Amino acid sequence: MRLFDRFRTKYKWNPRAEQAIYDTFIDLIKDRFRDNMKTLRELSKQMAKEAHRELPDEGYDIGILREFPPKGIPLEKWHRMCAHWNTEKWQKKSIAGRANRKNDLCRHTGGSIRFDQHRINLDKEEGKTVGYKKVLLQTHATKRCKKMLQDGVISENDFASLEFVTDRAKRSYVAYSQQLKDLYGDVDCDDLDLWKSLHPKCKGRKMFGIGSSDPDFLVTGKKSSTICGSNDDARHSQELQKVQAELEREREARQNIEARFELFQQELEKERADQDEWRKNMEELVKNIGKK
Questions:
Q1: What is the mean pLDDT of each run of 10 residues along the chain (292 residues)?
Q2: Predicted TM-score (pTM) of this structure
Q3: Are residues 81 and 137 in the same domain?
Q4: CA-atom Rg of the chain in angstroms
Q5: Which of 6, 12, 142, 153 could cysteine-pair with 148, CB 3.0–4.6 Å?
Q6: Whether 247 contacts 120, CB under 8 Å
Q7: What b/e string do you get for 127-156 counting C-beta neighbours within 10 Å, with b at 16 or more?
Q8: How many structural domains compose the chain?
């Protein structure tokens, strides 16, 4: 891949990490590519609206967008892109994606980090296994709410002041907190069965607040709720520590690559801007010569 070849001229790394870095680079390219394509469609949609064309509030009329290529996109390439977006397969994916983004199950503030990785990070920061309520706040509270919690303005039990990205998230958090207290008093503990009982409709599907993570580990901090002998417990604990350490290394490595990729992308954008400026100057120079 030529773009990766160019990237590797900017940075150096251990040859043994080559494949991992390449895989991360490709993942980032895929993520940015989707975002960039959406930006192009939105720019085209805005151009069409300014031309007083009728468009749906949600989604795209690709047949109309085809007539409005964004600045810098050759018409022939734009038509090929629109032909791809106009297929039944792509349209179905687009509709499904919009539906998922409206679904409470998919709305959270955890970013691209898996929920179980958030638990690992919080456990590491606190130096102990944190309660599931803290994980819920980290993944479903608003940015403003997290700031108030961090500054000590409010506490985890100030239910009226806590802010979440969805009403469902707040209802679940409050119900779980109150029922935990009713069952166990002020004892600091968690109960996966209780959380499951609050979301009976999630049976057989991804559970709310859990996603694709291991429910036992995410809620209780333990790899499995199955009762094991002491030897099994020790072995599982060691295995979990190894997995946590590996996930942490992968997270740090990915953050490092993302930072480098961001700089690399900024350099590419600057080069394109310089090339556009040079092209404009040359066109202006040719015009002036023609006038003489």
A1: 74 75 72 80 93 88 94 90 92 75 59 79 89 90 91 91 89 92 83 86 67 81 52 49 56 64 73 81 74 62
A2: 0.45
A3: no
A4: 25
A5: 153
A6: yes
A7: eeebbbbbbbbbbbbeeebeebbeeeeeee
A8: 2
Structure tokens at 247: 């996930």
Joined together, the tokens standing for residue 148 give: 């108030």
Task: State the residue range of the domain holding 90.
Answer: 2-102
Query: Residues 72, 27: one domain?
Result: yes
Length of the chain: 292
Residues 97 and 182 in one domain: no
End-to-end alpha-carbon separation of the chain, Å? 47
Closest CA relative to residue 170, chosen from 179, 160, 180: 160
Contacts of 168 (CB under 8 A, 6+ apart): 104, 208
Residue 68's φ and ψ, nearest 5 degrees, are -130, 75
